[in-house]
Amino acid sequence: MAPDTVSLRYFLVLAQELNFTRAAARIGIAQPALSARIRRLEKELGNALLVRDTRSVVLTAAGTALAESAPPALAALDRAWDTARRAGAGELGTLRIGYSLSAGAETAPALVDKVIRDTPGLEVGAVPMATPEISPAVAEGRIDAGITRGEQPGRGVRRYLLRRERTGVQLAQHHPLAGHAEIEIADAAAYPLRLPDRAANPVIHDQLAALFRETRPHPRFHTPAVSFDMSQRDLRDGVTLAPAGEAAVTAAPAGLTWRPLRGAPGLTFHLVLPREQSPPHRRIRAVATAVARELHWLPD
After folding, report:
1. Residues 116 and 181 in one domain
2. Quick one: 171 and 217 in the same domain?
3. Where does the HTH lysR-type domain start and stop, copy by copy (predicted)?
4. Are residues 217 and 141 in the same domain?
């Protein structure tokens, strides 16, 4: 039978002090309570651990053996206990994250860095994925979590609002509208507008296109041949605009800038998790809440 570990820890203090009064004071209990603990431990062991009289306390052979062998055993037990606690808190294991390419500019790196810093025992891997594939991959268990722009459809998942950002346009710094602090939607619609390939993210494509639905004349939309060109070459002509969220500020190449569209509804990022969630899932959700608060991604 495993010993009472509290009594065992008390015995180790007594084995160091060899004095009931000093040991009880060090532990912070009454001396009779310490004596009762030691008697219980001896009864469990079936052997005397010490010889005591009015003047001294001497360890028996069994007491000496226990005093030498118990500390590493208790340390191993403490490690096992801590490992179980950390696993239950989602602080151990592997976390696979898929994220939309547009989330890679700022949102996904910030969240992943926070998870790694706060949970060093969790092995984290994050890879870009086509946005429509993320929710099914989470539902099927091929990845543990997803970060998507927009509230993507999908069954078997839960979505948590991670970030809300202003909607605006990317444009060349020498564009005629670049000098405005905010741009009217109708003014932006007077120029060619580049929208991402709808297949890459139908939700965001339709949301951005809808901004200009009521403008007259109808805007001229086009989709670039390279759906995710980091250099943004087509905007350098000083004419074309690209509707985009405020995160585009972080990733804007030299020569380009971003301006908000007056009155435009915001764009969103969502954390996608399975409906049935394990400790690592709950852990990333807690970290996501913390990083959203720290970086002011959501209104108070």
Report:
1. no
2. yes
3. 3-60
4. no
